[in-house]
Amino acid sequence: MTEIRVPTLGESVTEATVATWFKSPGDTIAMDEMLCELETDKVTVEVPATAEGVLSEIIAKEGDTVGLDAILAIISEEGKQNSKGIKVEEKVNAPSKKPNDKPATPADIEHAPSAKKLMKENDIDASSISGTGRDGRVMKEDVQANLSITSAEPKSPNQSQTNIPSSKVDSVIEEEQQERIKMTRLRQTIAKRLKEAQNTAAMLTTYNEVDMSSVMEIRNKYKIDFEKKHSVKLGFMSFFVKACCHALYEVPEVNAQIEGDELVFNKFVNMGVAVGTPTGLVVPILKHAEKMGFAKVEKSISALGQKARDGKLSMADMQGGTFTISNGGVYGSLMSSPILNYPQSGILGMHKIQERPIAIKGEVIIKPMMYLALSYDHRIVDGKGAVTFLVRVKDALEDPHRLLMDI
Fold first, then answer.
1. What is the dihedral of CA 354, 356, 358, 364, to 10 degrees?
2. Can you give the pLDDT at residue 259?
3. What does the CA dihedral 94, 99, 100, 102 come to, rounded to 10 degrees?
4. CATH class entry, domain 2-148
5. Structural domain spans, the chain
6. Are 240 and 398 in contact (CB under 8 A)?
7. Is the pLDDT confidence value at 106 over 50?
8. Of 202, 199, 181, 232, which is closest to residue 63 (Cα–Cα)?
9. How do beta strands 363-377 and 346-350 pair?
10. Residue 267: exposed, middle, or buried by beta-carbon count in 10 A (0-12, 13-18, 19+)?
11. Which tens digits make up the pLDDT trace of 159-180?
12. Which of 261, 270, 346, 348 has the fewest Cβ atoms surrounding its Cβ within 10 A?
């Protein structure tokens, strides 16, 4: 008999919610086969089988909250008795073991187990869903989004409602057009942390705009050679990461945080890069970004972004950030005021590049412009420091040679 327990969830994480069971009592289990999925306040964790045999008992049901090292299930050898003394026989008609079963297509194999379960329960064909995971892999969130769209389609009241007052009929119709889904731990944590930032920090935002002509010129000139040499595309984010690293060394309070009655100044830059995923916003960290070149920054962002979309981020990928960049421009945002990733004291908001008429030396010229926003904790950062930081970022982007000259 083998006990399946809650694995190590990461630093500061002490509990999780059982999200989905992929197996049922009586199922034959292979070594390392995924049994269930746990949701923590930061990441989703899949729990594999640590032994072969038969799943004789599920201790923690879907929706249960479990602590570290708690028992999730019991796996027994075939013919053995489970923890309640019930003899477990192997299922003869287990569909996964029948040789004449219809072979699974590659797309089926690639889909997330939790997504397969949800599609089966709701009789949904995987080909009708556009997967957001790696190689088009259908994730649980994709299925939930599909169900939300389906449930939103208008439904007429059934025949038995013809004698019900119109006000009650309207209420029934409205309820049929609603869907209630329990918030995931990630979404609950996002809500909690954003509100905590608003309630705790003295948040203020300062704005500026930057002419992206020089960055776009350099990118267009070298992007082919850059990709050939480094096997990664040259994007805009690496310019912003490097510009922020330079500015943070000149204005160190933007890279600091409050701990108790002390100010902690970080002499390194762990750059958080906000990434949107089907389950919510996550912020993976580029550790020691100040030591990275452009290629290393682009490769790291690409790898972390893919892990985020596939739900494969580890706790280590998301801890220790000292400053954050959020790019609302990829969604078309022209201007916004980002909320601090508390306890960090600064977050830079990037936005959409838009051609606008700019007056230069008495002449009106069309330039590709971007609005920048720096939200900061006024308890740590004074207005002068915040404005200076944003101006230094602007200067570095409008004249990228400054990044090479370290000025």
1. 140
2. 92
3. 80
4. mainly beta
5. 2-148, 152-182, 186-405
6. no
7. no
8. 181
9. antiparallel
10. exposed
11. 444 455 666 656 666 767 788 7
12. 261
Q: Average the pLDDT over each of 89-98, 115-124, 207-216, 272-281 and give the range with the smallest value.
A: 89-98
What homologous superfamily is domain 186-405 in, according to CATH? Chloramphenicol acetyltransferase-like domain (3.30.559.10)
How far is 170 from 175, CA to CA, in rounded Å?
9
- Position of tokens 């049994």? 35
Alpha-carbon distances, residue 263 vs 244, 287, 388, 390 (angstroms)? 20, 21, 20, 21
Pure H helices in 201-236: 213-230
Q: How large is the angle between the packed helices 237-250 and 294-309, nearest 10 degrees?
A: 110
Q: HSE on the CB side for 134, CA within 13 Å?
A: 13
One-letter amino acid identity for 52? E
Token digits of residue 219: 């990118």
Confidence (pLDDT) at 169: 58
Give residue 31's pLDDT band: very low, low, confident or very high (50, 70, 90). confident
Listing DSSP states for 281-332 in one string gives: EE--EETTGGG--HHHHHHHHHHHHHHHHTT---SGGGS--SEEEEEGGGGT
pLDDT bin (cut points 50, 70, 90) of residue 390 is very high
Contacts of 34 (CB under 8 A, 6+ apart): 22, 46, 47, 48, 49, 113
Cα distance between residue 21 and residue 35, in whole Å: 6
Helix or strand holding residue 245 (H, E): helix 237-250
b (16+ CB within 10 A) / e for 148-179: eeeeeeeeeeeeeeeeeeeeeeeeeeeeeeee
Q: Is the predicted pLDDT of residue 145 greater than 70, yes or no? A: yes
* N-to-C CA span, the chain: 65
Q: Whole-angstrom Cα distance, residue 72 to residue 47?
A: 9
Spatial separation of the C-alpha atoms in residues 81 and 21, rounded to whole Å: 22
CB 155 within 8 A of CB 181: no
How long is the chain? 407
d(CA 272, CA 340) in angstroms, rounded, equals 11
Residue 366 β-bridge partners: 357
**If 0-12 CB within 10 Å is exposed, 13-18 middle and 19+ buried, where does residue 92 land?**
exposed
Position 335 scores a pLDDT of 94
Both tokens assigned to 289: 């970004």
Residues that are catalytic: 378, 382
